[in-house]
Amino acid sequence: MEIERINENTIKFYISYMDIEDRGFDREDIWYNREKSEQLFWQVMDEVNYNEEDFQIDGPLWIQVQALEKGLEIVVTKAQISKDGQNLQLPTESGKTIDMPVDDKIESLLEEKFGPMNKADEIEQQYGQDFVVVVSFKDLEDIIQLSHVFEPVEGMGEELYYYDDKYMLITRFDEDYLSDDEQEDLISQILEFGQESPLTMFVVQEYGKEIFEEDALAQVKEHFSL
């Protein structure tokens, strides 16, 4: 792993895919398993702290990841929260500090400073307000039966894929429309016909064969009769 100190607030390091595998991870872990990617990040940050003793984490961080041909380039910038808790203070390369409201979107600033977001960032932004459940079905017949008894509601969206010899239903629940109890009730209805999958939606979308991109249950009901 190569470490480059940009300034007192920013550090950049490069880690090859071979280094990642030596640490017990693989590419799929990094891009599609949030828990695994966080484990790798903090493991690497421990090494950064060991080599750069004066770069101590004492507040929020801005993190930008760029996928290269043979590894990852990661830029980490230390930020601070203002005393009144209303602004994020992000240091610039010139040494000045930019104050931004905590609830403001900062994608444009980060893109200007570090470059465009990667695909995983874009997906996370797109689904940031949704609770997502992936359910697998062994047979198409199970989904057909579900589609004829289930009534989708506002604030709910479904996608259907075929992956690893199973039909995979990705269901998104908008938490602005549906309460936790309502989401649990809808999920329990779906699980009467399928089984919750440990796979993330990112894996299914990336490697699965798309059948219906939206309104999946309504389309199954329309195309298949009991």
Automatic annotation (TrEMBL):
<dbReference type="GO" id="GO:0030420">
    <property type="term" value="P:establishment of competence for transformation"/>
</dbReference>
<dbReference type="GO" id="GO:0042174">
    <property type="term" value="P:negative regulation of sporulation resulting in formation of a cellular spore"/>
</dbReference>
<dbReference type="Pfam" id="PF05389">
    <property type="entry name" value="MecA"/>
</dbReference>
<keyword id="KW-0749">Sporulation</keyword>
<dbReference type="GO" id="GO:0045808">
    <property type="term" value="P:negative regulation of establishment of competence for transformation"/>
</dbReference>
<comment type="function">
    <text>Enables the recognition and targeting of unfolded and aggregated proteins to the ClpC protease or to other proteins involved in proteolysis. Acts negatively in the development of competence by binding ComK and recruiting it to the ClpCP protease. When overexpressed, inhibits sporulation. Also involved in Spx degradation by ClpC.</text>
</comment>
<dbReference type="GO" id="GO:0030435">
    <property type="term" value="P:sporulation resulting in formation of a cellular spore"/>
</dbReference>
<comment type="similarity">
    <text>Belongs to the MecA family.</text>
</comment>
<dbReference type="GO" id="GO:0030674">
    <property type="term" value="F:protein-macromolecule adaptor activity"/>
</dbReference>
<dbReference type="InterPro" id="IPR008681">
    <property type="entry name" value="Neg-reg_MecA"/>
</dbReference>
<protein>
    <recommendedName>
        <fullName>Adapter protein MecA</fullName>
    </recommendedName>
</protein>
<dbReference type="InterPro" id="IPR038471">
    <property type="entry name" value="MecA_C_sf"/>
</dbReference>
<comment type="subunit">
    <text>Homodimer.</text>
</comment>
<keyword id="KW-0178">Competence</keyword>
